[in-house]
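User: Round two. Same drill as before: sequence, then structure, for each protein.

Assistant: Same drill it is. First protein:
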Amino acid sequence: MSSNRGVVYVGPGKVEVRNIADPVMASPNGRKLDHAVILKVISTNICGSDQHMVRGRTTAEPGLVLGHEITGEIIEKGSDVEQLEIGDIVSVPFNVACGRCRCCKSQDTGVCLTVNPARAGGAYGYVDMGGWIGGQARYVMVPYADFNLLKFPDREQAMDKIRDLTMLSDILPTGFHGAVQAGVGVGSIVYVAGAGPVGMAAAASARILGAAVVMVGDFNKERLAHASKMGFEAVDLSQSDRLGEMIAEITGSPEVDSAIDAVGFEARGHTGGEQPAIVLNQMMEITRAAGSIGIPGLYVTEDPGAVDDAAKQGSLSLRFGLGWAKAQSFHTGQTPVIKYNRQLMQAILHDRLKIADIVNAQVISLDDAAKGYESFDQGAAKKFVLDPHDVLAKAS
């Protein structure tokens, strides 16, 4: 293993690629992990969730190595790893999960009870998620490898579809989870709030689940144009604050069967200012009675940059009575990636889901990570994939 380099959060609005320590098979508190592996990172993606930290909208401390969307090759393995071998190419769920606790045994790996002393749920390179070092780097350690890692069945096939397969670590299962939890099925009328990568993944998921109409709403013209190009009904939110009326222009009804919030707590309204509850309230308005709302968009318990004191503590002004009166179902929380990634891998390998095109994946070098963060923060209609060893560049 050569010296490691990774993307480090320096402070609000700034990341740098720095030399970082080589990974070791040990937990954040120093306990030896014989169930771990070391990966040579093949691809690692910039996520909208990372942007929340980089904008200074969380309690993340400078020095945090970022990155929870990881695909890599096993180059070392612990003595307790039995089902994986050196040289295997694997997808890493962003959830760090033990596979042994009550939640993991029920496939609720987003809220593993043992990998984070502070709360249920762990993740790589993320604030308050257990201190696990991030994978926007050349090398990374993954614990509980037999349970967590998804091995690709054929190396050559995997490298041929790596731009698609890299999405299995987070955004594709997250979008799919949002669609499943919103009750999308054959013939569903679906509205997705947000045309960023997770929103586009949710729209793609709704389509393969059988939705009749999939609408994607956003203010960003470039992202809306890409959504339309991918075959979805683009809803330009800048044109009106009457979402139901715009939906009715497309479907004939102001209500939908399923709504998916892929925006989260940094939502903005027509005034341009932040309104952290606006999307959730809109979802309740446009979703039919007894319909379901999936919420893969991130909401936080602490937001130092929030517009008011309540929002700084994660308290939002919701019209919950409306949702109650309409007997709607709400589904929140981090996606349990393991619940979906194997099926979605098969959909990719068998050409049922060209997710890289749908999210407009763009491969860039690890050294260009700061430029990727800046462009993404400005609303680029792209999903940036980092290529730490120039493997993807050589393969294309």
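Second protein:
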Amino acid sequence: MTPARRVVTLPPTVLGPDAVRFAREGQRRGADVLEIRTDLHAPDAVDAAALADVLPLLVSERGKPLPPAWVSAAWRVDRDLKDATGRQGSLEAPSGKLLASHHAERQLSTTEALRLWERELPPDALVKHVEPMMGPEHISTLLETQRLLIERFGPTRVTVLGMGAIALPARAVLARNNVLDYVAAGGTWAAAPGQRLLDDVVRELRGADRLTLDPPLRLGILGTSIVHSRSPRIHKQPFDRIDIPEDGPVETLVDSLLPHYAGFAVTSPFKLRLARHTRSPLEAINTLVRRGSKWESFNTDTHGARAVLERLGAKEAFVLGDGGATAALRTVAGEDGRVLRVLRRSDIGEPLTGAGVWTWPDRVPPPDSLRFERARVAVIAYGAPGRRVAAEISRRGGTPVMLGAAWFVAQARRQRQLWESAT
């Protein structure tokens, strides 16, 4: 199977010469196609011919007409099956350039989706079908829609996409048989919710053989605000960064993905919820491993917790927060004869002394009353979040001890061993 061509969309704030620089940078990082859309750029905001000299250009009609200069420079011209009124849209495009698309306003059954595509198309037209995903279980419907559209149009023409806050793993699974893979270049802007990061997709293609008939089992990390996570860089590919809202349906999501994934790393804020969902005897878990028709759960954070407490070197310590990381610290402290004082936000009063561990995610603001008095405080986050936590500790009178990498590496080694045993 030939890998899907990676499409990045030009952000609306990137204009003129900056657009050409964006295209060159995208090409350098592994993008195959650049998309420009009429709802994002005015006709004279970009030089379509200059962009087409860098990457094949996909021009997409979204509400406003396509400029002739864009069509002339295009590799493909994206026109919707239906116009804004719901009637048949114009599929006019130069020979060999049509990408016929439809962006559904709601989830469709496979029967409804196929009915849309009964319209006669040129034999060389590409086909793109997009639906919002209201629930994770819709992945099975999208896969069936993809299979039947490929039967109808052939394996070199079809792309099926899900959209929404929980769509990323569905898009990762669909990408194996898609012709196009729409991905986010990075930063704060994405053309559609649920897009994977370009760098993550390129990493997968470099680390896994997409041409095999039996693809490698997928892995992923589940969490909120995990763009900084290094897990996709160090674990076996394919490995997905599944960033979903804190109140997202993570339980239904992991159940729906059981046929498609061998395991997951679980990070904040889902360690406690997924422990309950998998009926784990553990208070919190950070690892799921597929065993036949169910998930088996583990907490390799205990390996990270032991590394941190040993490096702190204190027999007594306070812990800020009482979530999944604290559960691991509590387990290790009990085994090693250490005394932990677990402090929730409402417990913060007098300035804290001695040694401690900060477990709150950096997206959670600490209480205003938090102060330290010559305390050494371990930071178990890493990267930019870890630096932000360290700055807070210093600002409040403490000395940060950067142990995020030690925690991460220790628990990740054990995760890798467990995933290698997945069925």
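The chain has 14 helices and 18 strands.

User: Perfect.
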